C-alpha cells in the first residue's frame, strides 16, 4: 500500500514538470513582445523595461528557467506588478471564499447528483428517467453566469429572499454565510450535478445487469440496499473519477461565479489582474489551481484501491 | 396489393434515400435542436437584413429604452439596439465554435497519429498532453489572451489549445485499438505504405468519434468565448459578442436585467442545441462511448 501511494505520487512529478514548463514557456514563446502588451498602449520604454525585469525576461532562457524553478521550489510565485506584493500573499488573502464556494458546491452536488443518478438508473426507460436526463442536458448547457443572473433576478430582485452580492465568513457569521452562499453554490453546481448524475446513471445501469444484483434480490435484500450498497458500491469508480475531473470545471466556474455575485475570492483576483495586466498573478494562479487539480486527482487515484480491491497498480 | 408488398421495405429505403430524415424521425428532439441551430446560423449569416441597425451605433438620446416596435429588445446603456447586437453576437459565437472545433480536431489528429507511429515521441507527447489537461482551460486561455492582446484570432487560438489534448487522447485510443485489427495487420503484411495505411484504414475509424467530439468542442468553445469576453479577456469590445454584452450590462442588471439576460439566454439556447445534437450523434455514431460515459464527453 505504501509502495503504491509512493508510485502514484512519483507519477505526478512529470505532470507537474510539464505544467511548470508550459507556464514558463507561454510568456516566452508568445509572438510579439509580451512585456509591451502587458505594459499597455501608453507605456514608456522604461516601464516596459521594468516589466521585463520583473518577469525575468532579460536573461538567457535556461538561466531564467533554473532561477524560476528555484523560486517555485521555495514557494515564491513572484511579485504583482500593480501592488508590488508577493503573489502568494495576495492568493492567501483571497483563498477562503473560493475554497468555501468550491467545497459547498462539491458537497451539495454529490448529495443531489448521486441519488438522482441512482434513481434514473433504477427507473431506466420510464418518464422519471427521461425527465432527469433532460434536466441534466439542460443544466449542463446553461452557462454558469447565465444561470447565476437568472437566480439573482428571481430570488434577489423579484422575490428579495436572498442577498445577491458579497460574502460572509462562516467562522464569523455562519447564518450570513449560508444566505450569501446559497445562490452562487446553486449556480455553480448545476453543471457539476449534470455531469455526476449522467455518469452515476450510466455506471449503476451497467452494474444492475450483473449476476450478484440478481442474487442479492433473490435472497430478499431490500431494494434500497441492493441499489445503494451492491449497485452503487460497484459503480463507484467512474463516479469518483468524474468528481475529480469535474474539479477543472469547478475551478473555471468559480472564477465566473465570483464575478456575478461579487465574491472577493481568487476569481476576482484573476479579473482584477486581467484589467491591470498583472501577469504574475495570472501565472501564479494557474500554477496553484493546476497543483490543486493534480493533487485532488492523485488522492482519488489512491482512493480507488480502497473502493475497488480489484484495482492493483 | 402491390402497396402491401412494398410496405415493410419502406423504412429501410427511406433511411437510404434520406438519412437526415430518418435521423430526425428517430431522434425528434435532436431534430428540433438542429432546427433551432439552423435558425441561429441563418440569423448570423443574414444579420444585415434581419431588421437590424448598426450594432455599434451609439444613440445617447435613446439610452435604456424598453422593448418597442423600433427596438425589439430595447436599447442598452449607450442606446445601442439590443436585437441587432444579439444577432451580430451570434456571428462571433458561431465563428469561434467552428474555428476551434476544426483547428483542434485537425491539430489533435495530426499530433496523435504522428506520435503513435514514432515510438520515442509517444511518451513525451502524452506527458505534455497530461500536463496541458491539468491546467484549467479557462485560466490557460485567460493567460494566453492577456499575453498576446485581445483579438479575435488570439481568442480562437487560446480556446483551441486547451481542447487539443482531448482530441489527441481520443484519436490515440482509436489508433492503438485499430492497429491490432486483422485487416490492418493484413494491409501491413501486403506492404501498404504508411500514409495509405493511415488514410485508408486507420483514419476512417476515427471519423465517427471525432464528429461527436467536435460537436462537444464547439459547444464548449462557445461557452469559453463567452466566459472570456464576460471576464474582459475575450473578444474586443468593438465586436458585439454575447459575452461582452453581458459584461457591459452587468452594472445595470438591477434596473435593466434584459440587457444581460437576452444574450445569456441566446448563448444557453445555442449551446443546448449543439449539445443535444451531439448526444444524438453520439448515440448514432458511437454507441460504445454513449454507454461508457452516459453522455457528456
Distance between the termini of chain A: 10 Å
Total helical segments of chain B: 13
Task: Tell me the Rg of chain A in angstroms.
Answer: 23 Å
- Class by SSE composition of chain B: mainly alpha
CATH architecture of chain B: Orthogonal Bundle
How many domains of chain A? The number is 2
**How large is the share of residues in beta strands of chain A?**
under 5%
Number of strands of chain A: 0
Low-confidence parts of chain A: none
Question: What level of helicity do the residues of chain A show?
Answer: over 70%
Which homologous superfamily in CATH is the superfamily of the largest domain in chain A? MetI-like
Tell me, briefly, the overall form of chain A: globular
Stated plainly, the CATH topology of the largest domain in chain A is called MetI-like fold
Secondary-structure map with pairings?
The complex is a heterodimer of chains A (313) and B (297).
Chain A: H1 2-29, H2 34-39, H3 45-54, H4 61-73, H5 87-122, H6 127-141, H7 144-158, H8 174-208, H9 211-218, H10 223-234, H11 236-261, H12 266-276, H13 279-307
Helix pairs in contact in A: 1-4, 1-13, 5-6, 5-8, 5-11, 5-13, 6-8, 7-8, 7-11, 8-10, 8-11, 9-10, 11-12, 11-13, 12-13
Chain B: H1 2-6, H2 10-17, H3 19-26, H4 28-45, H5 82-117, H6 119-134, H7 137-148, H8 152-179, H9 182-189, H10 194-231, H11 242-249, H12 258-285, H13 287-293
Helix pairs in contact in B: 2-3, 3-4, 4-5, 4-12, 5-6, 5-8, 5-10, 5-12, 6-8, 7-8, 8-10, 9-10, 10-11, 10-12, 11-12, 12-13
Subcellular location (chain B): Cell membrane
Transmembrane segments (chain B): 29-53, 94-118, 124-147, 210-235, 255-278
Domain ABC transmembrane type-1 (chain B): 90-278
